Amino acid sequence: MQLFEIFQLGCGLLKKACEMVKTIDFNDADQHGLLTHTLQLVHNCLTFDFIGTSTDESSDDLCTVQIPTQWRSAFLDGSTLKLFFDLYTSLPPSLSPMALSCLVQMASVRRSLFNNTERAKFLNHVVLGVKVILQNPQGLADPNNYHEFCRLLARLKSNYQLGELVKVDDYPDLIMRIAEFTVNSLQMWQFSPNSVHYLLSLWQRLVAPVPYVKATEPHLLETYTPEVTKAYITSRLESVAVVLRDGLEDPLDDQGMVAQQLDQLSTIGRYEYKKTCTLLVQLFDENAQRYQEALSHPTCSPLNVSIHEGRLSWLVYIIGAVIGGRVSFASTDEHDEMDGELVCRVLQLMNLTDSRLENGGCQKLDLALLSFFEQFRKIYVGDQVQKTSRVYRRLSEVLGLSCESMVLSVFIQKIITNLKYWGSSESIISRTLQLLSDLSVGYSSVRKLVKLDAVQFMLNNHTSQHFPFLSVTSVGQAQLSDLRCRTTFYTALGRLLMVELGEDEERFERFMMPLAVSFENLGNLLSQVDTPMFRAEESKRTLIGLARDLRGVAFAFNTKVSYMMLFEWVYPAYTSVMLRALQLWCHEPCVTTPVLKLFSELAQNRSQRLQFDVSSPNGILLFREVSKVLVGYGSRILTMSPDVPKDQLYAMKLKGISVCFSMLKAALSGNYVNFGVFRLYGDGALENALDTFVKLLLSISQSDLLDYPKLSQSYYALLECLAQDHMPFVSNLEPRVFFYIMATISEGLTALGTTEAVM
């Protein structure tokens, strides 16, 4: 039986059920179960991957159902659509969501299934059913019905153009009802919060194409979009007090959801921007004034202060979002001036909050400020920004920030303030360092940054005394994860240093001095390893911090001169220290992974930085160090007990092996080593490294090799390199090893959804 026949059979059964709905006992398990399975059958037909492109059936990103042309008859007359709208009306809440889910798929059938006339007719049938639901919304009180209906609304625009929507029968009534439904839904922020995404997606897609619509019919979006924007903003502000007083889950804690909604709001809010900006200025001024009054009254309760901070957090997030939604071709001087008004207010608020950080601050508000800075940076800081923008004019008038360098100084001062006072907050530190990293990338902005006194201070004083998050003496295992921020920090510092470094070895040595001191301390600690005086925890933290710091510097140093200064600094004085520590804590991945990643970075010939002179042995010396690390770590990890629990296997063993594979691949393909030298002089570095690779590979099951994407990607990349440049080694492998490798290639080629390129 063909799938279309199965679909028709299911629809036929549902049609009979709809006609007999008054006689069906929904409390009867058999009758209820039959309807459930029939609806599921039709839904499965509609969600079938007809062209074999979807690897994730749960994704909502693919909004087009590639219905075959042979199915056209089922969708042309509108009876199938009417059947499922009738089923939604007739069935109880335990079944009706599935009817709506089928409608979501039907509304998403590919456009090319119809000609223009048929498509308009089909869209009219969909819209008619939607309007009936909006006119009689009682069924939407069920969260599942509500969620599926929001999905259906979103599909109206994802699959049809605004020019087509405005031509449907009684469009003004439709858009009015959708706007009312959206506003009411946003105000009921606690009810099905995951559905808000679909409503915002609808409005985002409605307003985005407005400049290009050529239809003569009015779209009325200028009337209703500001209402949606206002409803979102005011509902978020009103939620703060309820969340804090009732101890509810705070939407601001879900950073992913907040970012997604703000991305959608950035487009919606920029439409009729004058109204959006007027509303934001009014709300911001009111809330900022109340916040100042609360702070000036010692008797004001901490709860009230927290409420004001929560409301301001939302406003700062939203202001950042609408500024980030600026599109150059659609912006005017008036819009830029409005942006300037908003920016001035946020910076004034920041001055107030930063002045209170010595006595503690509000983490949510500071995260919002960082989000704002990131959006402002993307739009108004950088090489492509017009410096005559009205934003800068307004900043000059209100805050005296007359040029980009002065604005950058505000960024850097905020970054330094956060690093000084928020050392115990990983979320703020990581977001702050990401902002610093982003600033250090731009060609013109980074050259302005290095001229700032604050940046020179960072380059000359990157110690825990000035930046507490760099401290390794904190007690508590949880803080080990904080140390990973250090790589981002030193990558940014390395880029800033590179701007004017040239061949100035004295300046390089001065920059590396804090790391040299830490290495000396680590060497002294490791010398006591066999004595009761040995401080293992401090030693581990010091090593982890140094490995992450050096990896950041190595990543930033992407020129031949700078890399050579770093290599000669680290080898041989400090590589031996790390090798010893790696052997000492070989079964502690929190220690081994940062060290392995450091050596992997050192082996990367990024931007052709590893171009050694013909008389230089450094390429060979570097490979020998990589080989020592690989063999030293690999030989010990192979002794690990085979009884490692499955949920710990990747962290304890496979992650380290994955990094080793990446490291070896980088060293083999870097084109800076003549590998014939090793055999000529009887040096076993290459042979030992390749033998260790084989042993590590055989210690991994084929299923594990494919179950972990990072491991499989590093393995296949290394295998490609070996097959390309080291075929004698591959051809001399033992038969069992060769068969194992061929089996992994076969499995990799047939693995569903694999992204690896296998040779």
TrEMBL record:
Swiss-Prot/TrEMBL GO biological process terms: protein export from nucleus
GO cellular component terms attached to this protein's record: cytoplasm; nuclear pore
Keyword NADP set for record: no
GO molecular function list: nuclear export signal receptor activity
InterPro entries: ARM-like, ARM-type_fold, TPR_XPO7/RBP17, XPO4/7-like
Gene3D superfamilies documented for this protein: Leucine-rich Repeat Variant (1.25.10.10)
Domain of life: Eukaryota
Residue span(s) of domain Exportin-7/Ran-binding protein 17 TPR repeats: 240-474
Keyword NAD: no
Keywords, comma-separated and alphabetical: Cytoplasm, Nucleus, Protein transport, Transport
Annotated localization: Cytoplasm; Nucleus
Family: Belongs to the exportin family.
Protein name as catalogued: Exportin-7/Ran-binding protein 17 TPR repeats domain-containing protein
Species this protein is from: Capitella teleta (Polychaete worm)
